[in-house]
Amino acid sequence: MPFTPSVPHLRTLATAGLLALAAIPAAAETVGKVGVDWIGNDIYIDAVTDPEVSGVTCHVTYFDRSVIDRLKKGNWFEDPSNNAISCQQTGPITIGDIDLDREGEEVFKSGLSLIWKSLIVTRIYDKKNDTLIYLAHSRELTEGSAKMSISTVPLYGETVTWSNGKP
Question: How far, rounded to the nearest angstrom, does the alpha carbon of residue 156 sit from its chain's CA centroid?
Fold first, then answer.
């Protein structure tokens, strides 16, 4: 007999979906696209704003494989883990409720494959040096990657507003 979801089941699914959306990190805006060869491979440049730190913008690059390249080399559902990041102060800095532990906090995530691989930007606060660190790396379900890029935004000497008080 086929399962027919009841109204409570549908509400539970809808609530779970809304909670999942609420946990999504910052969105990116594509600000540049550079073609790198005749078969259609491109490098994209996205501007990423940190949802908890206003006044800082990170520019993240990633490689987008063309259909021809995917057919030629196989590995149809995946883009390379090559990426770079540069973050700068782009306005007055206001820091909200950020995670202050050593593992930092994920501020951006974008899929590099159908299921298995994501480009992640993680923010870490270096209290001793009063600096925000942004790490771009890929996360794979089955195999990690050592390819990464880092950018820092020094807060020393800057006028910074901490919503919850400076740690």
Answer: 25
